[in-house]
Specification:
2 helices, 4 strands, two-stranded antiparallel ribbon, alpha+beta, single chain
């Protein structure tokens, strides 16, 4: 992985308060798998920030 990718992983690990890179990557892959399978099945994901309208989430070009 590049230095930029390692830095991103470290940020996620800090947010999750974990020091296990393997488990963090496994959890991230499980979450991505769930997201993709749900969208493929017709599901949708939305986000709503306090001062924003609700909007569809798009990740890696996959629009929900």
């Amino acid at each position: 992985m590049s230095d930029k990718d390692w830095a991103r992983l470290k940020v996620v690990m800090e947010l999750l308060e974990t020091d296990n890179t393997t488990d963090t990557v496994k959890d991230a892959l499980r979450l991505l798998e769930y997201f993709v399978k749900t969208v493929e099945a017709g599901g949708k994901f939305y986000k709503k920030m306090p001062d924003e309208e609700q909007s569809l989430i798009e990740i890696f070009g996959i629009s929900t």
